[in-house]
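Why predict the complex rather than its parts? Because the way molecules touch one another can change local conformation, and only a joint prediction can capture that. The input here totals 230 residues.
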Amino acid sequence: MPAISVNNVTKRYDDVVALDDVSFDIPEGEFVVILGPSGAGKSTLLRILNGLTPPTDGNVYIGDEPIGSARSEVGMVFQMHYLIENMSAYRNALTGALSRAGLVRSLLTWYDGQDKRNALEALDTVGLLDFAEQRAGSMSGGQKQRVGIARALVQNPDLLLADEPVSSLDPKAARDVMSYMKEAADERGLTTLASLHQVNIAREFGERFIGVRDGEVVFDGSREDLTMEV
Ligand code: ADP
Ligand code: ADP
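Output of the joint prediction:
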């Protein structure tokens, strides 16, 4: 059974067709890069996979669970990191534990010891253990994205999604963030989809590449098949 199965997904916003009959399967543990220009439909696809927006047509399965059944945990890394700037890297990473626990627990209880160990382990995975107590607001753009990855890892996700995680970074920081994400995914056997628009950086880290343009899949292949035109 594939880790993710996207079947004939179409998404319309009024008269805009953001995704047009998109289908693909992703096996467990694969690191997939979604490539495509701005407006291609990458964010829409990731938002559907995360259950943030429903498809107009078609369906998505995570394992044998239809999306939205809330049985699978999906971790998400955003272009804008959405960290709480006044909290430490550690406290920010810890908030990942709230997603699984739900809002009620977040209001009523404290993090437990396991959450705290998970947060430290996740910071270690992204090379930030020594920065755990640093205020997120004082960190570099690349470090913030790495904290965002740690926060997603603390969710102990079945699936990791990253929507343009490095588009606001310079090439060096972008490579740095991507290599931590790839390592984290490899270490944990995590199925990962990351959207990128920089083909050069994508090529270095992706195992499989899905090219999207005008809401359609126009490419699906390995690094060897990847040309600069995607
Ligand atoms: P990007 O091109 O970097 O993916 P966009 O600027 O297209 O981002 O979109 C940013 C946000 O605005 C997204 O959450 C998207 O869903 C929303 N959005 C994009 N286009 C429209 C639109 N025409 N009407 C309303 N919301 C939109
Ligand atoms: P990408 O992430 O590749 O830049 P998006 O998924 O953000 O692409 O957008 C795909 C298309 O859907 C664009 O034409 C965008 O304007 C439109 N779109 C995205 N979100 C919305 C929205 N919430 N309302 C209306 N149109 C949207």
